[in-house]
Each structure stands twice: as structure tokens, then as C-alpha cells.
Amino acid sequence: MGTASAQYPFGISAYFHGNPRVFPHKVEFLSFGPTSNEEFARMNLYPSSASTRTSKGCVGRICSLPDVGDFFWEKVPTPMLDMVENPMHLKNLSPKELKQLADDIRSELSFIMSKTQKPFKASLAVVELTIAIHHVFHAPIDKILWDVGEQAYAHKILTGRRSLMHTLRQKNGLSGFTSCSESEFDPFGAGHGCNSISAGLGMAVARDIKGKRDRVVTVISNGTTMAGQVYEAMSNAGYLDSNMVVILNDSRHSLHPKLEEGPKTPINAVSTTLSKLQSSKFFRKFREVAKGFTKRIGRGMYEWAAKVDEYARGMMGPLGSTLFEELGLYYIGPVDGHNIEDLICVLHEVASLDSMGPVLVHVITKEDQEVADNQKSEILNENQEAGSFNSGSLPCSTRPQTYNDCFVEALVMEAERDNEIVAVHAGMGIELSFQVFQEKFPDKFFDVGMAEQHAVTFSAGLSCGGLKPFCIIPSAFLQRAYDQIVHDVDRQRIPVRFVITSAGLVGSDGPTQCGAFDITFMSCLPNMIVMAPSDEVELVDMVATAAQIDDRPVCFRYPRGAIVKMNNSTCSGVPIEIGKGRVLIEGKDIALLGYGSMVQNCLKAQSLLSKLGIEVTVADARFCKPLDIKLVRQLCENHSFLITVEEGSIGGFGSHVAQFISLDGQLDRKIKWRPIVLPDNYIEHASPKEQLALAGLTGHHIAATALSLLGRTREALLLMC
Fold it and tell me: What residue stretches are annotated with the Transketolase-like pyrimidine-binding domain (predicted)?
């Protein structure tokens, strides 16, 4: 590996370009100068000393050291990390220096975590693995894909984004996930997990068709192995037999507590030696020669030898390792994910094989891996002096009550009255709120992880068995189970109660986990009841309403974040009449018809407009389907202007209102209608308030729309100043 750096070009210049609203710091590097490899001549790298040019022509300078400012002045020294500005600088570092680099990166991540209160735990576990990958492979020519964005922060630090890590998940800052628009070192965006093998296989096949020789590396976690797409991709990879490396980052987590308590995959000298043997060129060639020899002897001998090989490798490997072999991937492992020398040895052997087909390297890591003791004490001292703290350590009683908290309390009350109620949860991890229900009803709570399709059909089966399932899935994750919702639930009118969490804009998680589309794709289903609460009181009532519906499916959505009224006591829910909205404030000049959480912003707009002498009616639709047509007709007949407001995409609640008022002839009369929905583009990560402003959904935006309808354009413009 010491000569690898000689393959890279020299004399590298860098240019900033891209959409500054999406990511103002994207960097593309073009190389100049002679090179022995045509592909490396086109390679993009972050230079050690280079001028930079923004899209406006401003010249700056790229440096590995973070900007000196208030954020970084107390930082623990990281001398080795300060010397590394791009992956090329890892190539000639000694094992000792690489270990020091790992300590520095872990220290850096811990420091940033303490300051920004962002979760970096998953990335702390893969620091050594990230270093080993970049030490062996040649990104961005070699493609490195990550399933989970939270594991890629060390990758971001090593690929030129260190100075911007403090802007993670902030407006105009770094994304919390890998992003093609952010860096050329991110060949594919990490979304909800489980996509990296499929995308990586596509890149590998495209490479083979084009006759290229770059390598493809995908990193998956044991959390994403709950998703079926992972196994679909592995099976196809085994069939196509294209060269690619799949690294399973096994942090030894399980959804099943009994498995957590069971025997762990051992990491010792024997397992390490066997992993190195499995990955060695000699062993692989010997195995291929043996296969060819037994084939020539006869089919019976070949099948017998294959069984012996499978049995022997199953004996050497941990439980379940033969599953990957059955799917067509050559299994290597387990490997200690915190031993850089072992990681480099195995990955180097894997990278050196030109015709190996798909390989899975099983790496064992610990998410609680800490920084070096001397750095740890310095970080603790600085955090105490700076008065920083981790909000995750706060007791539940001191944090704001969220919609999740309110929902769980309501569901617990319903479950205490009705022993047929069960809860099915899918998505990435269980929120703390749901653990309350799990602890109280351990036999009635089912967490299936990232298996949303299974969660929906499993819930349908529970319902057919006489139970009342509440299927709890975040809006963005529910998208993956739409086929099951249509065929396994709605078409059969099976009463499954869908609880759609994280609906609408989700702040720092940006477009990746934005719940923009559920109103649209759920309300177009013929048998689905679709509703949304305007506050926590309505949420409790809708839980009670859903519990009573037993002849068709129903769904309701609620947003992330704190509840409206900050009332810590949850009263028993009162079922709502299906398809019945309500009028909150009566006026005569203009009507605002809000859906879900946007009712609160309609009330804010009403307050602003009342100061200008405008009398506004504010109504809470409650239901998108069935629509309260009596309420809509009343609003149209008593007002000249109607505005519908929703935190969802085009085609949702406003479209249902438009369909009715057009068929009812209301648009042929005096009513003028305007919809306010999420814009037809993805809104990047920012704070919730900033995202609402970008989307045009704040109380001021609603009031400005009303003023424009009334012909008071100047006042509308002044309101937005």
C-alpha cells in the first residue's frame, strides 16, 4: 500500500460551484499534470494547498484545520488529523499513526457532539473502519456507499468537510446524510437505509459494461438488514457475480432482547487468523482450483465438495454466516472493527482480487467506543468549563412534551380499556415515548425495525385474527409499504389503524425523512379514512375514534415536536363523528380552512389580520376523507374567499376540496379559492421555523395570501418584510 500514492496525480486545483442555497460549499477538484492512468487523470481530490474559486469569483483557501472561531477555540488538540486533508494523505501513514488518527477523529466527533447536541454515536463506532476503507481504496474513483447517514460523519471529516462539521443539519450546512450534491466522495445519497447494495450493484454492473476497473464498496449495518431490499440486492449480486465489497458493520444490536442477552460472535486470535486466511489470495485461488477440479471429475463429486466446503466454512464462521454464502456472497469474518491493522489486512486482500465476485466482510464494532483516556478527560473538563451538557441525559419531566408522548399516553388509556388493542412499530429505532407502551404491554408491542412492508401486512393479519392493531410508522418510511397498504389492507377493507408520525417538515433531517406525501397517497385510496389533529386534544380524540372503527382502515398523522398547549395531563379521548369538521372562529371577510397542524398557523394568521380590521373565519377540517362537505359548502356560501392550508404536497387535502367545490358548482358562483401547500421541491435541512418560512406556511405567509386575495397587495408585502 505504500506505493499507492504514486498513482495519484499532482498539481491539483479546486473550484467551488453548485447551488449556494442547497449547499454553498460543494467542491470539485480538477487535476493537471502527467499520470500513468487515464482514469486517475480525471480524478477529483482535495488538495493540501490549493486556491479555491467560488461561483461569484471569490478566491479562498481550503485547509484541513477547522476555522478558528468561537466554536473551535476550546477544542482538544488533534495533531494527526490536522495533517490529513483528504483520503490520499492516509496512504503512507503507519499503523501507529493511523491509530492516532482514529483517536483524533473520535475526539473531534465527541467535541462536536458535545457542542451541537447531535447524535454521533453510530459514527464513533466506525472510525477505524472508515480509516481502513479510505486507506485501502481510492475514493472518489472507487465508490464508497453508506446505508446509514449517521455512520458517515468520520467519512465526511476525511473527505474535506471537517471545517463545516459544526454546520451539520443546519440551514445551508452539511447534510446529516451522504449527498451527491455535497461532495463527489458521496456517489449515492443515503436515505432510509438498505439502498447501498442495490445502488452499488448497479454501479458495479455499469462499470463492467463500460470496461472500467474501479471498485465498489458498500457499508451496511445490522439495523438495515431488517429490510427486505438488502436480501433482494444480495441475491441479485450473487447471481450477476459482479465484483463488489459489502461490509456488514455489526454493532451487535438486535430488536429481540433475548438475542441481545445471548452469545456474541467471538473476536479472538483464531477468528482473526481465519478471516485473514479466508480473504487471502492463496486461499481464494486454491478454492477456485478445487472447484474446477471437482467439476471435471463429475457433477456428483462437485456437489459433494460444495457441501463439504459449505459445512467447513459454516463451522469456522459465526451463526448465520452461511446465509450470505447461500445468497452468493463470499463471506469473510468476523473481523475486529477497532483493530486497524486487521481491517487493512483483510480489505487489502479483498481489493487485490480482480475476479472475486461479491464479497461480504463481517466487521464487529462497539457503539460505545470511547476516545482515548487522555483526550476524554480533556473533553470532559472543557465541557464542564463551558457549561455544555447533553440534552439526552435530561429526565423526561424536564423536556417539552411531544406529540409522540401525547399519543402514547392516549393509546395506553385505550389499551387499558380494550384488551384487543396492540401496537406495531416500524422504522429506524424506537422513540423513547413508545417504550412506555412497550413496558406496560410487553406482549402487545411489536417492533419490526426497518421492515415497513411486513409491518403493514402483519397488522392486517392481526386484525383478521380479531385484534385492533395500531400500525405506527413515520410518514417517510410508510412510503416503502404503499403496495401492502393498497392490496393487503385497503382493497380488503381490513381495519388497520395507521399512525403516521413525523408528518410534514422534519427540520434537521431535511428532505430525507420529510413526511410530505402521506396525505396525497393515503387519501386517494377508496376505503381509507384520513384525518389529522390540530392539537394534542384532537389527537387524543382521534386515537379513541380509530379504536372504535372496525369496518375499514383509518389513518391519522401528526408532526414532530412539542405539543401546542403544553398541558402535561392527558384526558380520556372522546370519539369524533366521522367526516365532521368544526369552526373555531367566525368572521365574514375570508375563510381559512386548515388541515392538521396548520390550523394553528391559520389562527396566527387570523390574529394578524384582525389587527388590520379583517374578520376571518378559521375552520378545522379534521378529515380529508370523507370530507365535511357541509362545512365546505357553508364556508363557500358565507364568504367570498376561501384558503385551504396543509403541510403536505400537491394533490392532498386542497385537491379534495377543489374537487368538491368544482363539482358542487361553488366555483361558478362568487367564491375564490386558493390552496397553500408545500412547494413542489424538496426543502433542505434547517430548523423547523426556517423550513416553514421556506415553504411559505407560516402565519405571516397565510395572512399575506389573504391580503393579496382581498386586493391589499401593499399590506401583504409589508407583512412579509
Answer: 401-566
Q: Is 27 helix (H, G, I), strand (E, B) or coil?
A: strand
Q: Is 3.40.50.970 the CATH number for 403-557?
A: yes
Highest mean pLDDT out of 379-388, 396-405, 507-516: 507-516
- Domain 582-720 classification at class level: alpha beta
Residue 370 binned pLDDT confidence (cut-offs 50, 70, 90):
low
Is the pLDDT confidence value at 265 over 80?
Answer: no
**Per-residue pLDDT tens digits for 86-98:** 899 988 899 999 9
Query: Helix or strand or coil: residue 623?
Result: strand
SS3 120: coil
| Residue 362 phi, psi (nearest 5) | -90, 115
User: Order of strands across the sheet with 358-364?
Assistant: 143-146, 216-221, 244-250, 358-364, 330-336
Contact by Cβ (8 Å): 563, 407: no
Cis previous bond, 334, omega within 30:
yes
Domain 81-253+318-364 is of which CATH architecture? 3-Layer(aba) Sandwich (3.40)
Distance CA 503, CA 557 (A): 6
pLDDT digits (tens, 9 = 90+) for 685-714: 899 999 999 999 999 999 999 999 999 999
Counting Cα atoms < 13 Å in the Cβ hemisphere of 48 gives 11
Contacts of 40 (CB under 8 A, 6+ apart): 7, 8, 9, 31, 141
- What the block records as the C-alpha cell of 131 is 480509516
Name the one residue in this structure whose C-alpha cell is 473551535. 72
pLDDT at 252 > cutoff 80: no
User: For the chain, which residues make up each domain, given as ranges?
Assistant: 81-253+318-364, 403-557, 582-720
Q: List 71's β-bridge partners, or say none.
A: none
- Strand locations in 147-215, DSSP E? none
What's the Cα-to-Cα distance from 227 to each of 76, 197, 231, 450, rounded to whole Å? Answer: 39, 12, 8, 5
Domains 403-557 and 582-720 share a fold: yes
Proportion of the chain above pLDDT 70, given as a percent: 74
Pick the closest to residue 595 from 481, 499, 518 (CA basis). Answer: 518
Place of cell 421541491: 681
Contact criterion met (CB below 8 Å) for 590 and 710: yes
Asked, as a colleague might, if the bond just before 442 is cis with ω within 30 of 0, I would say: no
Return the H-helix or E-strand segment holding 498.
strand 497-501
**Across 633-661, average pLDDT:** 96
The mean-pLDDT minimum among 180-184, 298-302, 400-404 falls in 298-302
